[in-house]
Structure formats: C-alpha cells, structure tokens
Amino acid sequence: MKIAVISLGCPKNLVDTEVMLGLLADEGYEFAADAGEADIVVVSTCSFISAAVVESRAVVDGCLELKDAGRVGHVIVAGCLPQRYADATWEMFPGVDAVVGCSDFERIAEVVREVAAGRRVYKVGTPRALYDERSPRVLGTPGHIAYVKIADGCANCCSYCTIPAIRGDLRSRTPESVVREVAALAKKGVREVNLIAQDTTAYGTDIASDITLPALLSALADTGVPWIRVLYTHPAHVTDELLRAMSELESVVPYLDMPIQHISDRILAAMGRRTDGERIRSLVRRTRDTIPGISIRSSVMVGFPGETDEEFGELLAFIRDGNVDHLGVFEYSPEPGTSAFSLSGRVQADTASARARVLVETMEELTEARGRSMLGDEVEVLVDSAGAVAEGRAVVARTAGQAWEMDGTVLVEADDSGPETGDFVLVRVTGVAGFDLTATLA
Ligand code: SF4
Q1: Across-strand partners of 31?
Q2: Which domain holds residue 352?
Q3: Does residue 128 lie within any of the structural domains?
Q4: 194 and 330: one domain?
Q5: What is the tens place of the pLDDT at every residue in 117-138?
Q6: So what's the pLDDT on residue 416?
Q7: Is the pTM above the cut of 0.70?
Q8: Which atom from ligand 1 is nearest to the alpha carbon of 155?
Q9: Considering 325, 342, 373, which residue would you say is the last residue of a domain?
Q10: How far apart are CA 400 and CA 385, in angstroms?
Q11: In angstroms, what is the span from residue 13 Cα to ligand 1's centroid?
Q12: What are 43's strand-pairing partners?
C-alpha cells in the first residue's frame, strides 16, 4: 500500500509530518511522491489564519476529487485544521475517511490501518503530543538541514493569535532529549539545525528555572553540528544571557529571528505583546552591540484594529532605519475565538494591503543596498543545492545570515568541479539580484 503525505504550513507542522512519515515507514508502508499515485493520502494541514484554512481546504478538496475519480482510495485530514475545527471538519469534508488533530499525530499508523479496513476514524483531543529523540523521523528538508522542535504550544496568548487554542499549553522537551537528537542528526550528515517552537525563548519555563534556551545552546555546542540557528524568539523574552551565549558559542550562527509584530506602544499593548517600542529598540541595539554582524529577521503585522496612519508611519520609520535585515509582512486576519476579534476599528483591507506593499518595497530596497555594500566581500556559504547545467554547475547557497526558505540565497557560479550540496565554501560576492546575491568561488 502506498501513502502520499502532503505537509502544509510552518516548520513546526513539518516536524509533526516528518514523525508521521517515520511512523508509517516503520510499519513498512511505501510513499508516493504524488497524491494521484497513492492508495491513501494524508494532508497535514494549517489553520492559524483564514488564508491558511482556505489553502488547506483547497488541497483536501483536490484530494477528494481524486478519490471521487477513483484514483485515490482514502483521504485523511490531519494537523491544525481538525485541531481547530474538531468535528466540524466532517462538515467541511464529508468525503474524508479520517480526521486527526495535532493531539494524535503519533497515532497515524493505527489510523491508516483502520481507514484501510474501511472504518471512519476521528481523533482530536487535548493537544499534548510532543515528539522526542526516539520518535522515528523522515526528514522533509534536504539532508544537510533539519528542524528540531524544542517545545510546542504557547503560553503567551497574544490577542490576535489562534495558536494557543490549536497547539495547547507550552510543553518543552528535556535538554537531554534535544541534545541526543541533534547529535544523532550530526552523525547523519546534518550541517545546519534550526531550533523551532512557537516561542523558543519560552523554552524550559514549564520545566525548571535552570532549563533555558541559553543553557540548551551551550549543551548543543559539542554535538558536531556546525550551524545552529535559533528561530521564533519573542522580544519580551530575549535576554542578555541569550545574546551572550549566541556571541560566545561558535556553532550558533549570528542570526536572530525575532517577530516584533509592531513598534507602536499602543498597538503592542493591544496585541498583548508584553513589551513596548523603546524596549524593542533597546534590544535591537544591544543585540547588534553584543553580536557584531548579526542578521536580524523579524515579522510585522499591519492593519491591526485601530492602526492609524501615524502608527503605521512609526513602524515604517523603524524598518527604514535599518533595524532589521529580513522582514516578513503579514496583514491582520480577524480570527474568531481570539480576543482581538471583537476589537473595533477594523482597518480596510485595501489600506492594510497598501501598507504591507510599502513595507515589502522598503525592505527590498534596503536588502539591495545591503547586498551592494557586500560587493567584493569574501563570505562563507553553505551549499543547499548543486546541480549540473549546460555550462558548469548551478549552485544555490546561503550565508549564515540567511535562513533556509525564509531569506534570500547566494547564487554561485561554479564549474564541473564545483562544490557539493552540504559543503561549506568561501565565495566572493559579485552582484545583487533582488533579495539574492550572486557570487563566484573565492
Ligand atoms: S507568542 Fe503570541 S503570536 Fe506567537 S504563537 Fe504564542 S500567542 Fe501566537
């Protein structure tokens, strides 16, 4: 029996999908790359905003059309969508065979057995599941990169966010479990580990006061992974101790992913972000002082209820001032069940879109200017892919300041003897192409 597994949404969901793949592989199932070639399709969905729900629904509906056409036997909906909508998922997709929440992804092999025997299955409970180093995993990333989820759930309750309702309370893995997993990944040839959670800086606060992200980074220093990257920090929880650890530990790349969401005091308070504009500005200064050359990635939200032109202008000025090096821009999405849903002062959709566009264009200009300032520099890159083309090799790589599939890349000119995927090489920057750099081997 062949199974196709489709993963949607964020890296946190991807790790759950990878564990499902591992559990199914352990049972001896084979995988199909394409849904149309499978007996059973598992769609691991996303639902944190309505746009993600729309995308998930379109993918599941596509699989159900294949089922109606007799090209697929059974369809299983898993992950965040059923966790959010529970048994209403059946009404959305009357033709699916199983509904499995984030709470029960570790029971996927049992669900597949039931479905194959012709039974409908519903498994959505309290989201408590969390994998560990003993969980089988089939990486969905290129072999030299891995995500390692150090915690799941969130205790922050930002006013716009559905995640605590979907993913449950914060629950951290033990440092020993994370260290064992990262050491095993290093042995398998992983060169870059990306630590993820809903809020990585909350890591350990649910276990003990001495279990912290800085302590975990120190414990990971000897695992043999050359690049360790910290993603998804919260500005209210980034401490000087964390910055010191990042500056002192060679394997931790000089990169901080810190979604600030906004810079206006009033909006940050309404968002429940537990910080303010001055504290964020001060934190950015301390981060750059402590870790010279660091790349800061952030994400911001425009169109939060009541956001005025002046408040947006404050955010735009903060970005224009070069406080961040990479930026994700999101438009506020009113989500039922969140406290912000009932706030008055909804911003018109076209105003929010226009604000988002201005930020993206501003960031593109800043990124190009930063790229031009690097012309002629020699930088170390990690090769993400290297394939033969008509004349030589097409090499796509990244500096330590560029996260995989989030920031730009470095396109390296190389001949047939050029580097392989997973190699670290020195390159000389020769040009800028939008968010990407071009380079030759140094
Ligand atoms: S920190 Fe805030 S935005 Fe992030 S997952 Fe938790 S509640 Fe949502």
Answers
A1: 3
A2: 145-373
A3: no
A4: yes
A5: 999 999 999 999 999 999 999 9
A6: 82
A7: yes
A8: 6
A9: 373
A10: 16
A11: 15
A12: 6, 77
CA of 147 to the centre of ligand 1 (A): 19
299 and 395, same domain (yes or no): no
Kindly report the length of the chain.
442
Please give the order of strands across the beta sheet that includes 326-331: 145-149, 192-196, 227-230, 252-257, 295-302, 326-331
- Predicted confidence (pLDDT) at residue 415 exceeds the cutoff of 90: no
pLDDT tens digit sequence for 152-161: 999 999 999 9
Residue 154 Cα to ligand 1 middle (Å): 6
41 vs 64: CA distance, rounded Å: 9
pLDDT at 394: 85
Mean pLDDT for all residues in the chain: 97
Classify residue 215: in a domain, yes or no: yes
Q: Tokens in use for 162?
A: 């559905």
Closest-lying ligand 1 atom to the alpha carbon of residue 167: 5
CB 413 within 8 A of CB 394: no
CATH number at residue 49: 3.40.50.12160
- Contact call for residues 421 and 406 (beta carbons, < 8 A): no
Q: How far apart are CA 429 and CA 438, in angstroms?
A: 6
Nearest Cα to Cα of residue 271 among 318, 323, 322, 338: 338
Q: Determine the pLDDT at residue 188.
A: 97
> Which pairing describes strands 393-398 and 378-388: parallel, antiparallel, or unpaired?
antiparallel
pLDDT digits (tens, 9 = 90+) for 266-302: 999 999 999 999 999 999 999 999 999 999 999 999 9
Nearest CA to ligand 1 atom 2: 158
Q: Which residue's entry shows tokens 């007799």?
A: 70
Q: How many domains does the chain have?
A: 3
Nearest-5° Cα angle at 99, 96 to 104: 155
User: Is the same domain home to 205 and 338?
Assistant: yes
186 and 261 together in one domain? yes
How much distance in Å is there from the Cα of 162 to the middle of ligand 1? Answer: 8
Tell me which residues have their CB closer than 6 angstroms to ligand 1. 154, 156-158, 161, 163-164, 198-199, 234
- Same domain, yes or no: 369 and 382: no
Residues in a beta bridge with 195: 148, 230
Do 336 and 418 lie in one domain? The reply is no
Residue 11 sits in the same domain as residue 68: yes
Q: Which atom of ligand 1 is nearest to the CA of 202?
A: 1
Q: What pLDDT, on the 0 to 100 scale, is given for residue 226? A: 98
Distance, in Å, from the CA atom of 29 to the CA atom of 327, rounded to the nearest integer, reads: 40
